[in-house]
Amino acid sequence: MTGLKLRTVGRMADIDAADWDKLVTASGGSVMLKHAFLQAFETSTSVSLDTGWQPQHLLFLDEKELVGAIPLYAKSHSYGEFVFDWAWADAYQRNGLKYYPKWLCGVPFTPVPGPRLLTTDAYRPAVAAGLLEWAKLSKLSSLHVLYTEPADQEALVETGCMPRSHTQFHWFNRGWHSFDAFLASLTQPKRKKIKAERRKVRQAGIVTKVFTGTSLSPAHWDFFYRCYANTYHMRGNPPYLTPAFFEQIANTMAKHCVMALAYEGERPIAASLLWRDHAHGQQRLYGRYWGAIEHVDCLHFELAYYTPLEWAIANGIDVIEGGAQGEHKLARGFVPVETQSAHWLAHPGFADAVEQFLAREREGVQSYADSLTSPFKPEIGD
């Protein structure tokens, strides 16, 4: 198999953390792929056979040296992925075929682009080919590699996967020295909207505070989980992540945590949590979780966007990734960014049909991005 020896491992706990993280560093250094982050999903039982995520990580060895690794899961559903293939699963079922289980490569519940083939350029083609060969030998219906980086996407497509495009909205720091300077760069309607939304929150008597790292107490985390779980309960769903997941992150990766809390007097009423990262030479925030125990008009925008933006400007953050979808982010200074995934289906007939669909979808994604109007004032000379 591609000249490399392949091992499968069913638990992150059985993989040497230093060896795994060495490959993460070689691939750009994202915290979202660190051993401690991925292991927290498993040891907290947020990711398990019972929750429909069966870990089956791949390790590639050249002689005895670990030269490649892939976070891989056998999925019995399509929840928590944010790249939607429900229609494909439905088509399989209507034709008497099994779509699940399927292979999924990515970070559970996390729509953040990043390396998926943890390796170096020299081994990337072999690791990509090894992954696809493994998927074919496994006899599962399909392989889905989500939120890839360009080098991985190129290698996966070259080896036989189908490319898919999506749109997210990211915020890029243009060197603003304050939130007011950021506002001044927006068009008048966008600036007016943001000021009005922030004013509503202030007039309701709400103040916000940001806590990071060791300033986050167990009480902060307990309240955050109340809010996080309530977001799911309001929709009639159980939360994806257990309290134990956040406890482990608080104990092992606190320096990567940024939490914004909203207070009515001394009483907290809402919380948002972002991950802080340093990857490819940039300081980044990933906007992930939000919830409240009371409704206040526009508080979601304040706590999920404006307070983190203000903190990001003050702390030299280069990029905020706002997660999946969300055209409403455009009005708040985020701009469209194309993201990628790679897919392989074992059934030739369905693979042909999906390939045609993805070609049309890519055209639609591009047309959608082209139709959006920038929230920023035009620069002189534009």
Automatic annotation (TrEMBL):
| InterPro entries linked to this entry | Acyl_CoA_acyltransferase, FemAB-like
Q: Which residues form the signal peptide?
A: none
Kindly give the PANTHER family that the UniProt entry links to this protein. Answer: ACYL-COA (PTHR47017)
User: What's the name of the protein?
Assistant: N-acetyltransferase
Organism equals Jezberella montanilacus
What is this organism's lineage?
A: Bacteria, Pseudomonadati, Pseudomonadota, Betaproteobacteria, Burkholderiales
